[in-house]
Amino acid sequence: MIGSLKNIRLGLILLLVASSFLGHSQENSPWKKLTEHDNTVSSVFVGLGRHEYSLTGGQGFAVYLKNYNIEPVLVTGTVVATTICGNEITTNFSTTLAPDQESSGGDFSNTANSQTGVVLPTDCIGRKTYKGKKAFVNRIKDVTIRNFNVKPLGLVAKPLSPLATQKLEEAKQIVFIKQKTQDSLLYVIDTLKKKKLALQEGYDKLSLENNNLLLAAQKDSLTKKMAKLKKDTLKYGYASNTLYTSPYFGIGWDNLPIFINEDVVNKTSATGASSHPVLAAGVVLSVLNHSAISIKLNAFGSHGANIATKTLGSHLEIGGLLTILGGAHYYSHLKAFAEGGIIYREGNWKKDVEVKNTASPATTLPATQSADYEYNVLRFGGGLQYQWNKGESHIKPGIFWDKPSITNGSTVMLEQLEFQLCDKLKIIGTYGSDYFVGGKNSFVIANKEKQDYFSIRMLISCRTFVAHL
Questions:
Q1: Is the pTM of this model over 0.85?
Q2: CATH top-level class for 238-468?
Q3: Please, are residues 399 and 414 in contact by the beta-carbon 8 Å criterion?
Q4: Are 33 and 47 in contact (CB under 8 A)?
């Protein structure tokens, strides 16, 4: 009896050592649990799992069996691997287990009667994952068991004493709890890995969506900038073959030399000038603005009236000037220009005055001084233009010559300065010393007084038509 107890105690110790080795091997095994299929049926422990990553010829799956009966049993059933592609791969097994015997499966190459099967690449392509720098393929979604049956073989072992039976049951319970704990931990680790993979996939998706949003925003910003650039290019005349018109209007002041006649009392003629305000208007047509040489045609007109006391007068001026502007590039700041055209002037002037009575020098007589003129002027010249703000603003000094159509007039040199701001405000000042006198003198003038010409304009302009030819 004492010998039997020693044998039982030695068996229990060996069983515990085997359990410890089993736990260590399972902990370091590439086999991982998928779901909590672990169960004990008729004192036979059943554990299902699959190889963690794809084998060279496929991905394996198996059922682990251990007999906790005191008699041998025949365990049969079908192991079913459900692939991530949706199909099922099965293998049948029939395994005889002695008391306390375990079985981890058979040969992968023979699945006719085995606890182990393989999902081949032809069965399911699988999904590639990465672990560090190495790539792995997972093909199995879950492993289940069907038609599971435990059949006792009827070989009754020698009955054990109550104490031995108790110790054996305690040992079985320890092994079962330890195996269950290890399998549960493996399942938790595998679940955490799945969650980590899902989080990584979610992060990658969010990163991709964020990048797409960023690219869309950059594309939208670039599209707006391109549209603005195109608009500005047309607006400032810097696109290929552009044409635009700029009408303008404003006010000014003219000092125009004229012959003044007094035909009734003293019957004399003299040189003088009509100084009067004017209203001005016109339009500029500009072409070839993209080229190093551009052309502008300015059609203009003005009407003036005398506003001094006892003075009446009307003055009309109509003309057109052609300007050729050139530089190294169309966007150059400094350019040279040549300008020429024709100006038509006509008007009349009348003033009531008191003149000396030649018969009685101490007295005066009322008289009327008057002037009438009509002539053409050929104007030509040139100068420099310094521009900025994409050509919208400039300073334009120039020298011109006016050649009149009247017989007693000579060509006169003029100085002109033009200032333009943002293609909106333009100020033009013109001055000529000893300018020719317009009109006709009724009587001989012994000493002609020199008369100066000056004109100033303050204009407002706007672009009403822009064409991309």
A1: no
A2: mainly beta
A3: yes
A4: yes
Q: Side chain identity at 75, as an amino acid letter?
A: V
Residue-wise pLDDT for 222-253, tens only, equals 888 887 766 555 444 444 457 788 899 999 99
Rounded Cα distance between 205 and 211, Å, is 10
The pair of three-digit structure tokens given for residue 119, joined into one six-digit string: 């999902």
C-beta of residue 106 within 8 angstroms of C-beta of residue 93: yes
Residue 395 phi, psi (nearest 5)? -120, 130
Cα within 13 Å of Cα(19), Cβ side: 20
Q: Closest by alpha carbon to 84, among 37, 121, 55, 49?
A: 121
Q: Cβ(313)–Cβ(277) under 8 Å?
A: no
Decide if 32 contacts 50 (C-beta within 8 A): yes
CATH number listed for the domain at residues 33-156: 2.60.40
* Whole-angstrom distance, CA of residue 85 vs CA of residue 300: 84
Q: What's the CA gap between 65 and 74, in Å, rounded?
A: 11
Considering only residues 235 and 27, tell me which one the structure prediction assigns the higher pLDDT: 235
Q: Where are the domains of the chain?
A: 33-156, 238-468
pLDDT per position as a tens digit, 50-73: 877 776 678 888 888 889 988 999
